[in-house]
Amino acid sequence: xxxxxxxxxxxxxxRFFFRFSLxxxxxxxxxxxxxxxxxxxxxPQRYYNEAWAEPLFTFMGGIEMAPQIHRAAGVVLxxxxxxxxxxxxxxxxxxKLKPLIKERNLGPGTFFKAFMSMEMxxxxxxxxxxxxxxxxxxxxSPKPPQYDRICWKExxxxxxxxxxxxxxxxxxxxxxFRDEFTQIFPGWLLNxxxxxHTDEALLxxxxxxxxxxxxxxxxxxxxxxxxxxxxxxxxxxxxIHEHYAExxxxxxxQGLAHEIKPQGHH
Amino acid sequence: xxxxxxTIINKVxxxxxxCFTVWYxxxxxxxxxxxxxxxxxxxxxxxxxxNVDAEIAALLNEADMQEEQFASALREQGRIATxxxxxxxxxEEYVQGHFHHVGMTVEPDDSSLCIRCHGAIPHDKxxxxxxxxxxxxxxxxxxxxxxxxxxxxxxxxxxxYDKKSGELISNPPGLTSLxxxxxxNYGAKIAPGRISSSGQFMFLNDEKERAFVEKYLQEKDxxxxxxxxxxKKVIHRRIDEDxxxxxxxxxxxxxxxxxxxxxxxKRRKQDLVGTEVAGMVAKYQEFYMPKFLLPxxxxxxxxxxxxxxxxxxxxxx
Amino acid sequence: xxxxxxxxxxxxxxxxxxxxxxxxxxxxxIFMLGGLTWTAPAQAEDELNCVLCxxxxxxxxxxxxxxFRLFYINENLFMKGPHKRVMCLxxxxxxxxxxxDPAEKVNCTVECHxxxxxxxxxxxxxxxxxxxxxxxxxxxxxxxxxxxxxxxxPGCKDCHEQPLYRPLSFFKGESAGxxxxxxxxxKSCHQTGDFAEDFYSHVTSRLQKTRESxxxxxxxxxxxxxxxFQKRHGLDNVVASYKETFHGKAVTFGSDETADCMDCHxxxxxxxxxxxxxxEPTASTHKNNVAATCRNEECHVKAGEAIASYQVHxxxxxxxxxxMQYYMLKFFQGLMAAVLYFFIIVIFLELLRRLFPNFCFxxxxxxxxxxxxxxxxxxxxx
Lengths: 266, 317, 382
Fold this sequence. Notes:
Largest sheet of chain B: 4 strands, antiparallel
Radius of gyration of chain C: 32 Å
Shape of chain C: elongated
Structural class of chain B: alpha+beta
Number of strands of chain B: 6
Number of domains of chain B: 2
Number of strands of chain C: 6
Largest interface: B-C, 93 and 112 residues
Number of helices of chain C: 16
Oligomer: heterotrimer
Distance between the termini of chain C: 95 Å
Helix content of chain B: 40-55%
């Protein structure tokens, strides 16, 4: 991995820091394409009596086509969920378990420790970062939090769909195959699944539109569009701003400790 | 300098984003807490119904006949009934309890100053012919019949005006249409006016007159009740005691309206002054006019019926 | 044409009527002769040339009860439905002269001059009234007593407007309208008049719903969406809760294949006029019959019996009747509010911080690279 993706790339004499592999970028593109499609075909149904609902729904294929598109996108998303689960398990095995097996050191304790050391897992530093962030935001500290490779906001962003899909997906499937569903389960479960499906989707939609898009679109240094989701590499300035701890670590690792820039301000 | 400009732009953008954040907070509140039939309005035909519905509910609690009628009028307002036949869609104004299809919507006459108070269906006193009079009010301005030249030798010229804008327009093409269902539906009305020495046509109810009525309606609360009566007299100063009668126009010797000039084709003019209409008018004149001239004297309010009896009557299949 | 039930108008009008009846009858004859010379009547059905006056859209008035009465007949549309073969006077029977007095309300159960071809009897809508009178919509209860608020119970015209054909073409694939090529086959034998076209329209209209599902919901909504009506009869706002279901949403977006009011509330295969209360054991919505209604051969064929426990008319604000929906909704609303408002506050503070990046209430010395490394490596477990 480190061979294919050097930790620091130079382009026009500027440093770019590795963030996402091609595999991850492709998964993200599939994810957001599906989510946008699902939103455009789903929300007009939730808000059926708003003025914008019918034109948008008609544009998305109307009552004949839009539900089919919605289901197709949902199926792709569920597949992506399973693929991604396999993907992180593979990485976990390759990067964490294999070395332990080699060292003949695999036990419940070490397994748990290895599991928790995955970069997406929340940890104590996230708690400290949040405290430091509030101190900084309330003008009680001059130091912005120094985030590691994945900051707490990114972890939240990651787990939002990772918890959202298991809620939305089965509920959507139940509503889709309602006839078969009622062969086994009581009909009132469909009432529950409907609420789960529509309200979790609303939460996801409102969150993505504001919080996630703030981080990657609206924020002054990103506007109109952060490019890391396409290139996989983050500029030095953004790296200092968003992942200072990782920045220092990478620079030190690459023997560039003397060129480390101070964190400074936004 | 460039740095300063950049910083200013950056700060302005940040402030804009802060406003956006606050707006989103307010935007979210109803989005999060509104769900389900309870707060959704009932009828998608009217966009404003959510507001109106609350008013209606409040009104109905009083269970007052008058208020219920007001509520139902509010609900009816601007409502369109749609009938989808697959190969064609009939869109028409919603008329409560109406059986036959109207097949169209009608533009209101926004420019008539009389309608501002009297409404679009003003004729009511002459019971036998009020529907006919209202039919004429659909394409003939009030002042055409209700204001006639006072001075000897003076005569009005007549032109069409657009119902929506009130502007002078040329003769409507609908007049020559063979589609009978469009008779009278010209989107225009005939109104009297004067031709100035320079040859320019001026409607009797011109901008000045309209502005005066508008001003009165807006500011009448500032006037005392006596002054209001005075103003009403002023507004109605030119109205004739005896309006133009049916046979004024429906006669073939000297009709009041210049049909040819107004764009009526020969066959339609013939209908209007010929045996059918003029003949019927003659009969009406004979039978109904005496009452018509004394509007309202034969009208007595009737005591309201008990609910059950009324229901029997309403329930006719 | 003028449909006027009001007694007081009759009394006024009667005085004229008695005195002038003879003269008016004479005039009627003159008028009809005049009508013939004026122009050949466009339609044989309008023998009295009623549209001479009724073709004007403005023919209208406000009646004594404040209702807008419109006496306009759109001939083009009138000729597009089965009633085109009925004369004006067949329904408006009390009109005996022209110009006429205010007409009485039309009674749809009278026999008209058309014959019903299978029985050769005069046609009438009376059988429908019998079915309606046995349904929940009858204004009499089972003992024959008048129910409360009898004026709220519907007659024909409360649900039905003048019927219009909704023909279908099956010639090459199904589409709306008359197939001219299909019709040409009929016309090779049935050449006289409009017979083939009317028959085609009549039959193919009956092979589908004569009204779009959306219109059916609107028809029921005329009464059932009225808050005062609901209050009078102790009913829920079933129109609003229906529109919240997937059935309702699909219908709102123009689906004609999804269940509307009739599909669930009428026993499959019965007359739509026979709707019964869910408390009747024979009703389609009785708790023992719900599953059968859902699983009828055009709808949820493959569903299990358990589909009956799906709650269609859910009121999310009613915690007593629908506790699961109510509390689930509250949970998700709470979750949404917590997550979104937390992030809104964070983002707002972050933006505020960016306005004055160099300001701080508390002075601290800036960190060097070494301490950053120490801070973060402590989590990495080696």
